[in-house]
Amino acid sequence: MTSGDRTDVTDVGDATSPYDPRGERDRTRRGGTAVARRPPALVAVGHGSRDPRAARVLSELAAGVRALRPGTDVRVGYVELNRPLVGEVLAELTGEVVVVPLLLGRGHHVKHDLPQALVGAAHLRGVVAGALGPHPLLARALHERLLAAGWTSAGQAVVLAAAGSRDPESARDTERTAALLSARLGGVPVLPAYASAADPTVPRAVAALAGRGLRRIAVASCFTAPGRFAAQCADAAPWIVSAPLGAHEAMAELVLCRYDEARATLRAGAAVGAPA
User: Fold this and answer.
1) Domains within the chain, CATH numbers bracketed
2) Is 47 a catalytic residue?
3) I need a labelling partner for 72 at 20 to 30 A (CA). Which of 45, 51, 183, 205 fits?
4) Distance between CA atoms of 163 and 232, rounded to whole angstroms?
């Protein structure tokens, strides 16, 4: 599977988790006896933030992943701003590794920074998983965060607030996530908007929906953890705003889904650093 392979918008509804929480046990033969082989380490990589809550949230998410997959070495690293950096985490590992971006769409970090970090860890055999979104599990987490924030059938529209990227594939991923969320909400309009690098901004998206006569407009935070962008988008909410996705159970399931997809390509002999 390439980083461009994603679940179609039509694959929604009561989607169940596509991963096995126990994991498929790798086995080798030794003297005619099947012997369990250590699974690849899972390095979950966040962007990094000066907000101290962000690192705590990602630690909680990693704990949720460990609880679902006992026996897998799960670690957290960052692209920037926080320690340990992903390169520092990789330097401590041996054997096989799957790097899972805790990023919700394709962009420069997923396509370039993380593959380069893995190429720099020449002592490892590894692969970079695809971005977390779009995916029905991501839509589920967004939906349930909205419900927790007070969303009801009286809601008229949603602005899906994302970080933004100059990469057009990132915008397409956010658009598909918006469509998945709209389907879960029964067809309520969901308009993507961005904190930086892309248009429209959240205030412009809110204004566009209000211009169509819609008043009860929620902002759904399409962010893994709290930070400047999440706060900036929340400030523009005219009604309710959902919390960042954080350690939601569906996010832990989604991390393992991407891990298992990438792990399959690793067994098939994928090149080090290639996004799965």
Assistant:
1) 27-132+248-267 (3.40.50.1400), 136-234 (3.40.50)
2) yes
3) 51
4) 10
